[in-house]
Design brief:
The complex is a heterodimer of chains A (about 70) and B (about 270). Helices cover about 10% and strands about 35% of the residues of chain A. By secondary structure, chain A is mainly beta. Chain A has a single domain, classed as Ubiquitin-like (UB roll) (Roll). In chain A, the strands form two sheets. Chain A has a five-stranded mixed sheet with strand order 2-1-7-4-5, with no helix packed on it. Chain A is globular and about 40 Å long. The N and C termini of chain A lie far apart (about 40 Å). Chain B is an alpha/beta fold and about 270 residues long. Chain B has an eight-stranded mixed sheet with strand order 3-2-1-4-5-6-7-8, sandwiched between helices. The longest helix of chain B is centred in the C-terminal third of the chain and has 19 residues. The relative contact order of chain B is 0.15. The chains are: A mainly beta (about 70), B alpha/beta (about 270). The interface between A and B is medium-sized, with 21 and 49 residues. The complex binds zinc ion (ZN). The site of zinc ion has 7 residues of chain B, from helix 8.
């Protein structure tokens, strides 16, 4: 299936969960990521259950605490 | 307000702009911006806001200048090491532009002082360096109903978003769950490319200026991310989260004192 991850077209075997997508996309620090799935921000508890389907759009938003 | 001859010359490059003009410059001169944190983000923001002639600039920070700050906090100079950051920053802003009134607060932004402090200003710039402060500023801006620019920088990346409380997505809409304390990398270990503060802090100042002018489109409902490695900017469209604990229809955060302890425990653990 083809999905869009952070603006890039990605081809994957699917469907799969957000948690699995984080692994497959080699997100180094999944605890430091907030996920927007088709425009909706997910709760962390939903990562294990939310399915990603062909045509979906996923954005990984990273925590950035720095500034000084 | 009537601009003096000296002001007409100082701000001539603004005044010839169709979107600014003498009227816009007068708006800037009567504008009030609060900068929280005189560090990597606050430094360029303060310099440009002062140069632009923003009439009142408040700076709150409880730290003093350290040698390791100078790689990126360009408002502080080598002889300032040991001086309170607010004093060092104020001296530079006054030197750039005597039109500007700088108010300094040698204090930590906290739940006790932030809402009342914000209410004295038109726009707020979050230039802090830890999650605890970033959630606190987001929440205080909600209770004060104050526009603010949120930003963060880390390693080779940075991002920012402008929040119109009650109208556009807030920081908690995007990041509902603060990271687990164990998951937070130490920024002093992670490091940050010095110029990142310049890029992102200057964009924050741009938002403040646009807000004061009433010109252009603010960066609301969009997180602008910057990756210095690939030189890519991306604007990620976001929207208000109906489950937001702060600005959603069923809020569970109804006062600043209710800040979850998990977030407060992060305070200071991620300083850079
Ligand atoms: Zn919200």
């Amino acid at each position: 299936m083809e999905i869009t991850v952070n603006g890039d077209a990605v081809t994957l075997d699917g469907p799969l969960t957000i948690a699995r997508l984080l692994v497959e996309q080699k997100v180094k620090m999944p605890d430091m990521v907030s996920v927007e799935h088709n425009g909706k921000i997910l709760d962390r508890a939903e990562f294990e259950t939310q399915q990603v389907q062909s045509g979906d759009t996923v954005e990984f938003l990273y925590f950035m605490g720095g500034g000084a | 307000m009537n601009l003096t001859d000296e002001q007409l010359e100082r701000y001539s490059r603004h005044i010839i702009l169709e979107q600014v003009g003498a009227t816009g410059q007068e708006k800037l001169l009567s504008g009030k911006v609060l900068i929280i944190g005189a560090g990597g983000l606050g430094a360029p923001a303060g310099l440009y806001l002062a140069a632009a002639g923003v009439g009142t600039i408040g700076v709150i920070d409880s730290d003093s200048v350290e040698l390791s700050n100078l790689q990126r906090q360009v408002i502080h100079h080598t002889p300032d090491v040991g001086t309170p950051k607010v004093e060092s920053a104020a001296a530079k802003m006054r030197a750039i532009n005597p039109d500007v009134t700088v108010r300094t607060y040698f204090d930590r932004a906290g739940p006790d002082n932030l809402v009342s402090l914000m209410s004295e200003y038109d726009f707020v710039i979050d230039g802090t360096d830890n999650f605890s402060s970033k959630y606190l500023i987001n929440d205080a801006a909600w209770f004060a109903r104050k526009f603010f620019s949120h930003a963060g920088i880390l390693r080779f990346s940075g991002q920012l978003i402008t929040v119109h409380p009650g109208q556009s997505a807030c920081y908690r809409c995007l990041f509902p769950d603060p990271p687990e304390p164990g998951a937070v990398p130490s920024c002093s270990q992670a490091g940050v490319l010095g110029v990142l503060g310049g890029v992102i802090g200057t964009l924050q100042a741009t938002e403040a200026i646009k807000y004061l002018l009433g010109e252009g489109e603010l960066l609301t409902d969009a997180l602008l991310t910057y990756d210095a490695s690939s030189m890519e900017f991306r604007k990620v469209t976001v929207r208000r989260n109906p489950r937001c604990r702060l600005c959603g229809p069923s809020p569970t955060i109804t006062s600043l004192e209710q800040q979850d302890q998990a977030v407060c425990d992060l305070s200071g653990s991620c300083k850079c």
